[in-house]
Write a structure and sequence with these properties.
two-stranded antiparallel ribbon, 4 strands, 10 helices, 201 residues
Length: 201
């Protein structure tokens, strides 16, 4: 997520990468190319261009593409610890819905598990699934945002309220702060221990 790094952090990284006296140092970073490469004003884009021009170190760029259908089969087989031939129908369905987007694929498997369509057989101790339900009943969203939104909407109303209010706060906040805000709300709803820990991140 280097695309979200602040300017000072990028500058520190730049100072290290362009300094010829720094040796035996490996930096491994990742960023979303669509958020950076097409935006010349982006601080990370400017830094990358600088590294290409000035750094004496070897800089290798690896573009990660969406998985192919065969790679999706390998991924699902590895995840479920089953032979590729057994997971092919499920993997093909997931690839058809996700177009090989890795994040979306993981969330789709999680959703199948959450709906108990993908489950462990306690006798064979292997994963199994109802393919017809996976194909006909599960509502695999058309994109990641729809999937996450659907997951949020499936949460209890009180928890949705907490998340809604918390989205206006910092990344880390104390339960007492959130509870005070909720107590002052017009609907008078309270934050319960069931839906929050002492510190929420």
């Amino acid at each position: 997520d280097l695309q979200w790094a602040d300017e000072r952090s990028i500058k520190m990284l730049s100072d290290i990468l362009v300094d010829p006296t720094v040796k035996h140092f490996l930096v491994l970073g990742a960023y979303r190319s669509n958020d950076v490469d097409d935006h010349p004003e982006h601080v990370l884009k400017q830094a990358i261009d600088k590294w290409d021009r000035q750094s004496s170190k070897h800089i290798h760029k690896i573009s990660l593409k969406d998985l192919t259908k065969l790679e999706t089969v390998d991924y699902v087989a590895t995840t479920l610890r089953l032979d590729a031939s057994k997971v092919e129908p499920l993997a093909h369905l997931i690839h058809q819905k996700t177009k090989g987007n890795m994040f979306f694929m993981m969330k789709s498997l999680e959703e199948l598990r959450r709906r108990n369509i993908l489950k462990i057989n306690v006798h064979s101790m292997q994963w199994e699934w109802e393919h017809d339900r996976a194909m006909d009943e599960i509502e695999l969203a058309s994109n990641v945002i729809d999937l996450i939104t659907a997951k949020l909407h499936s949460m209890p109303d009180d928890l949705q309220l907490c998340l809604h209010v918390a989205s206006f706060l910092r990344a880390t906040f104390n339960q007492s702060v959130l509870q005070e805000i909720l107590e002052r709300g017009s609907d008078g709803r309270m934050l319960t221990q069931q839906h929050a820990s002492p510190d929420v991140t």
